[in-house]
């Protein structure tokens, strides 16, 4: 490999700001291993191979996903609801929230609220209060159908809905997204006659954003889910090449693995847009649950720049050197130009009263915020690199559903390869059970 970047279909992975830490011959040495991993993923012969049904999902999505049904349900909800309540935790809500908050709901969208992702009574009370007097529709999402937080939230909301709308009308307003056969939620949905959407077998929560789990809420927000699936389809194409030097998902996996071998045990996903916060949360679950096992794995965390440069920036520049960053940079057309301040508080012609450069920022007048943000990004990756923090940069050309679908799939594919590079099963999460069992046994005693 000669360059420090790989651009395919306008997604670019750039490791220029890792050059003090990664030499391209080290990357080249991953070629054979990546070929082997590619085979394990695509032939489904590796660890956890029964959970790889997300892999080809975008390829013929019209066959594997009930897109028309999802769109019809979404249109019905959009025409009737003031509030759409998404109940779920982890992979059963974060992907949808990431897309909705990043792409921003359109004007015809109901307000979208989230429940079932924690147990705080203050929060639940506030959501309940905000439903009063409004038309409410509910999507309860749980693959297992028995996770504590969404189950408790759904019981609370069922009680509210049945009291408020009557049992019959309540059941017309509830959609359950769950397993096609098993689980308490499936049994309840059958008994009550709720509309159901099936989470395909062989797809774990954190790999499910492009299934009905994510697609119904995303469609309710007004996003074109076909565009998103088309983006994922393109990502399938460009990440289904076994060659490391042509496949951006494998490059990202190999770069992370090299950095881990060099003691960089913490990865910060950096974005420069506060609407990308849940995208970072989705990425955190994806990599955290997939890799953190058997005493291995990079600890994934996220930061929102430039905001967090004023809190974490000091540590990143000069603290313990166990960090690397992955910046996701998006081009945007949604820009704003820094205005001038051509006012005068005194008499016309009175030079003393000309305050237009009071803040010393007139040199930036007429410049766009996006360009200023870009300079902040470029200045920051360089400074952090000087401080011993390597930076991988992933760039995308536009903020839209197509490129978000592409990015979701890119990360999932990369994560599968990353897990195999580490030698772990990237599709299970046995460690989550310990806390769950412990909490449940305590709850039985209160
Ligand atoms: O969809 P479910 O079964 O409620 O699970 C929600 C989340 O909980 C976990 O099982 C871990 O607690 C995640 O892997 C999953 O995304």
UniProtKB/TrEMBL annotation:
Keywords per UniProt: Cytoplasm, Gluconeogenesis, Glycolysis, Isomerase
Pfam families in alphabetical order: PGI
Entry similarity comment: Belongs to the GPI family.
GO molecular function: carbohydrate derivative binding; glucose-6-phosphate isomerase activity; monosaccharide binding
Catalytic reactions on record: alpha-D-glucose 6-phosphate = beta-D-fructose 6-phosphate
Entries under NCBIfam families matching the protein: PRK14097.1 (NF010697)
Superkingdom classification of source: Bacteria
EC number in record: 5.3.1.9
Active site annotation, chain numbering: 289 (proton donor), 436
InterPro entries according to UniProt: G6P_Isomerase, Phosphoglucose_isomerase_CS, SIS_dom_sf, SIS_PGI_1, SIS_PGI_2
Gene assigned in the entry: pgi
Matches recorded under HAMAP family: G6P_isomerase
Subcellular location: Cytoplasm
Recorded GO CC terms: cytosol
Protein name from the UniProt record: Glucose-6-phosphate isomerase
Function: Catalyzes the reversible isomerization of glucose-6-phosphate to fructose-6-phosphate.
Recorded metabolic or biological pathway in which this protein acts: Carbohydrate degradation; glycolysis; D-glyceraldehyde 3-phosphate and glycerone phosphate from D-glucose: step 2/4; Carbohydrate biosynthesis; gluconeogenesis
Bilayer-spanning residue ranges: none
SUPFAM superfamilies from the UniProt entry: SIS domain
Biological processes per GO annotation: gluconeogenesis; glucose 6-phosphate metabolic process; glycolytic process
């Amino acid at each position: 490999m000669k360059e420090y970047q790989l651009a395919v279909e306008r997604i670019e992975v750039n490791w220029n700001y890792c050059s003090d830490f990664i030499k391209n011959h080290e990357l080249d040495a991953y070629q054979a291993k990546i070929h082997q991993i590619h085979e394990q993923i695509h032939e489904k012969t590796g660890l956890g191979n029964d959970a790889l049904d997300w892999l080809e999902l975008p390829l013929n999505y019209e066959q594997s996903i009930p897109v028309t049904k999802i769109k019809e349900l979404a249109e019905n909800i959009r025409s009737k609801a003031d509030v759409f309540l998404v109940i779920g935790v982890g992979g059963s809500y974060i992907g949808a929230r990431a897309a909705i908050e990043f792409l921003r709901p359109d004007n015809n969208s109901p307000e979208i609220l989230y429940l079932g992702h924690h147990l705080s009574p203050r929060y639940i009370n506030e959501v309940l209060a905000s439903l009063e007097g409004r038309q409410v529709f509910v999507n309860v999402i749980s693959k297992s159908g028995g996770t504590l937080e969404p189950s408790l939230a759904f019981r609370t909301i069922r009680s509210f809905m049945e009291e408020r709308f009557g049992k019959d009308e309540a059941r017309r307003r509830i959609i359950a997204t769950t397993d096609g056969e098993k689980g308490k939620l499936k049994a309840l949905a059958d008994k009550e006659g709720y509309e159901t959407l099936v989470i395909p077998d062989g797809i774990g929560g954190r790999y499910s954003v492009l299934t009905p789990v994510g697609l119904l809420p995303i469609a309710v927000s007004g996003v074109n889910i076909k565009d998103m699936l088309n983006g994922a389809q393109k990502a399938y194409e460009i990440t289904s090449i076994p060659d490391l030097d042509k496949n951006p998902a494998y490059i990202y996996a190999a770069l992370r693995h090299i950095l881990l071998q060099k003691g960089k045990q913490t990865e910060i996903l950096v974005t420069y847009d506060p609407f990308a916060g849940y995208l970072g949360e989705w990425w955190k679950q994806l990599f955290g649950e997939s890799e953190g096992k058997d005493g291995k794995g990079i600890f994934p965390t996220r930061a929102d720049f430039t905001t967090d440069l004023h809190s974490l920036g000091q540590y990143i520049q000069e603290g313990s050197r166990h960090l690397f960053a992955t910046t996701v940079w998006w081009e945007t057309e949604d820009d704003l130009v820094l205005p001038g301040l051509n006012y005068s508080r005194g008499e016309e012609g009175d030079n003393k009263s000309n305050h237009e450069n009071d803040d010393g920022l007139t040199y930036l007048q007429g410049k766009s915020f996006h360009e200023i943000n870009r300079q902040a990004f470029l200045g920051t990756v360089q400074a952090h690199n000087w401080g011993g923090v390597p930076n991988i940069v992933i760039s995308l050309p536009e903020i839209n559903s197509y490129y978000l679908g592409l990015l979701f799939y890119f990360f999932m594919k990369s994560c599968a390869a990353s897990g195999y590079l580490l030698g772990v099963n990237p599709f299970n999460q046995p460690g989550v059970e310990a806390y769950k069992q412990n909490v449940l046994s305590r709850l039985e005693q209160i």
